[in-house]
Amino acid sequence: MKNVIITRLAAPALVLLLLFFFLLPGNLRADEGTHAQQPSAADQLARLGREASVFKTLKTGFVQEKRLAVFQNTVVLTGRIVLQKPNRVAWHVDAPVRYSVVISDSSVRQWDEDTDRVQEISLAKNPVLQNVLNQLTVWFSGDYRSLLKDFDVETARQSPPAFRFSPKKTVMASKIIRDIEIEFREDRKYLRSISIHELGGDSTVITFTDTQFDVPLEERDFEVKRRV
User: CA nearest 175: which of 34, 19, 26?
Assistant: First the structure.
């Protein structure tokens, strides 16, 4: 039973990230009016995006800390994320339970060790989810300015660079998320952490560790069900 609860806590973080970065109305492109309202943040995001968009493949570890407002405790998960541009992403939770989500250009597949079942959704039959996948490249390409159309952004810190995004009332994310803060590494090549603050008081902090760029990938990196 405990594993089921932990697995259910692992999945929402990925869902919230998808809501934040991808499930936005419109084409996600910031217009000139938005740039005029947020010149400092927009300019800095553009520069950081250029610096953080040069890789083709990526492997990174992560530590996810989920703080529950009701129970006043923290659930810590560790795992790995593997990315191959333009459209393959694997999210593997390794401890204290094992759970995986793999997104490709044709499907989304999910597996957890408690049920030991693989669930698959075809993107060909789900245009909304297909749009999620299409917009996935926006985030990993470093086009952070595109978020300004549907989110208010402010500079949280100058060094290391950090930005706080608050969803506008017209977007879906505003029903769940109060704000999300992203912090870059000192070398500005990638994110150090993402902090998600929900309206209900829960929060999730994902810290990236041992990030490697342009490393060779294997097919097993994108296998949703683990090998024994």
Answer: 19
CATH at residue 118: 2.50.20.10
The CA distances from residue 8 to 1, 15, 144, 165, 209, in Å, are 11, 11, 29, 25, 23
Single-letter amino acid, residue 136: L
Query: Residue 214 has which token pair?
Result: 């342009």
pTM of the model: 0.79
Q: How many domains is the chain built from?
A: 1
Whether 228 is covered by a domain: the verdict is no
Order across the sheet with 117-122: list the strands.
117-122, 107-112, 99-103, 88-95, 73-84, 57-68, 203-213, 191-198, 177-184, 162-167, 151-157
CB 44 within 8 A of CB 155: yes
DSSP run (H or E) holding 35: helix 32-37
Q: Is position 227 within any domain?
A: no
**Within-domain flag for 191:** yes
pLDDT in tens, 21-60: 433 333 333 344 444 444 477 788 777 877 777 788 999 9
Range of the domain at 33: 2-222
